[in-house]
Each structure stands twice: as structure tokens, then as C-alpha cells.
Specification:
Blueprint: H1 12-21, H2 27-51, E1 64-68, H3 72-82, E2 88-93, H4 97-109, E3 116-118, H5 121-126, E4 132-135, H6 142-151, E5 155-158
Parallel strand pairs: 1-2, 1-4, 2-3, 4-5
């Protein structure tokens, strides 16, 4: 039932609704979109109230990345984009220990010191040595991780974030 939607409706729902609005011939989806939009607006309003309380240092000179998600796309982003730009990777994380270890090895192979290795993204966010989070996990966890990181005062980047 739409009136029982959780108060923290994923922001990604906005993209879905915007997409289906372009197809007026699909009445069922349009009705669903119309019913959900007020919940999204309320969620965005609540999020804006929280975001006003967050202070972010936009003039970071020493970026220390915590990289979360080292599947095929995440590993490629780390090794082909982040590391070649000589960005400092302070921590790597994946729920699979072999992926996390491979990410740490890639960081060391790029000439950097060994990063902290985590299996739980909460640990990366709590790491005081990390001030920037790159999220390359499965799409369904992007919003949850990003919001938690932003609430912790970290800068956040997402792999393909706008596509969801």
C-alpha cells in the first residue's frame, strides 16, 4: 500500500519516476508515479533539513580515498582511473575478502603504501584517515552508503550514480 511507504524512500526512486513520466501510454505506471511523488518530495525535504547541518570542507588539499566495492567495475575504476591519476587510496573495502585484498595489492603495485582493508563499509566511513568515499558497489546500496558517508562529513563520489 502506497500510504505505508517508508519515510526514507530511496532517492533513486526519483529517477525511476522521472523516466516513466515520459511514457503517458502506461497508465498503471503513471498512477504509481503520481502516488509516490509526494513521498519523494517529503523525503527530499527531510533530507535537505539534515544536509543543512552537515559541514563539508570543499577546499580539501589532501584527498584520502576510501574505495568501497571492488567487483569488476569497481576494480576497473580503481586501477584504470583513480590510481593512474596518483590519487591517494587510504582504504579499500569489499564484502569478499579476496576482492578487498586484490584492491589493496593494486594500490601497492601503483607505488602507494598499503591501504587499510575492510569487509564492512561502515568501517571505511569511520576511518579517520579517509575523507573521501568512492562507491562502486551494487546499485541497490549506493544511496544508503552515500548518505551515511555524507552524514559523517565525507566527500562522496558514485560509480554510475545518476543511472539509477
Amino acid at each position: 500500500h502506497l500510504h505505508k511507504l517508508p519515510p526514507s524512500l530511496p532517492i533513486s526512486s526519483f529517477f525511476y519516476i522521472s523516466y516513466i513520466d515520459g511514457y503517458p501510454e502506461n497508465k498503471r505506471k503513471r498512477a504509481l508515479a503520481k502516488a509516490i511523488k509526494p513521498a519523494i518530495i517529503e523525503t527530499e525535504h527531510n533530507a535537505a533539513k539534515h544536509l543543512e547541518k552537515i559541514e563539508v570542507n570543499c577546499e580539501m588539499k589532501d584527498i584520502r580515498i576510501g574505495f568501497i566495492g571492488l567487483g569488476a567495475r569497481g576494480y576497473g575504476l580503481l586501477t584504470q582511473v583513480v590510481l593512474p591519476q596518483k590519487e591517494q587510496v587510504a582504504a579499500v573495502c569489499d564484502v569478499y575478502d579476496d576482492r578487498a585484498e586484490n584492491g589493496a595489492k593494486a594500490v601497492q603495485d601503483a607505488g602507494q603504501k598499503a591501504p587499510a582493508v575492510y569487509l564492512d563499509y561502515h568501517d571505511v566511513i569511520r576511518d579517520k584517515n579517509v575523507n573521501t568515499i568512492i562507491i562502486a558497489t551494487g546499485w541497490d546500496s549506493h544511496v544508503e552508503i552515500a548518505l551515511e558517508a555524507m552524514y559523517a562529513g565525507k566527500a562522496v563520489a558514485m560509480e554510475v550514480g545518476g543511472a539509477y
